[in-house]
Fold this sequence. Notes:
Distance between the termini: 72 Å
CATH superfamily: Nucleic acid-binding proteins
Structural class: mainly beta
Helix content: under 10%
Shape: globular
Order of helices and strands: EEEHEEE
Amino acid sequence: MTASALVSGRIYRDPERKVSKAGKPFAVAKLREGAGDSAVWWSVAAFSEEACEELLRLKDGDAAAVSGPFTVTTYERKGEIRLNHSIIADRVISARRAKKREREDDRVPAYEDAR
């Protein structure tokens, strides 16, 4: 059984596009949940096309939420045990609005002057 999480926060640095050794594209990012001393840093990886596209639209400082399976591991730094939080984003939700693509049939007719 795999546990899933929904994590919201702010993107730290612009997400990056990567390519696996097998030649498959994926995206990675860092997400800061909370602020100050209570902040938790998450390593985010997205492999599905939809999640990659949404993650790569984000920029440094953008608010976002990601959901998917997660892991928490420990490591030692300077004699202190620390936690490493990672999540595989199945879904990325952004507060950033996507620009609408303008299609010919979506255009509003031009205003005609009445003389």
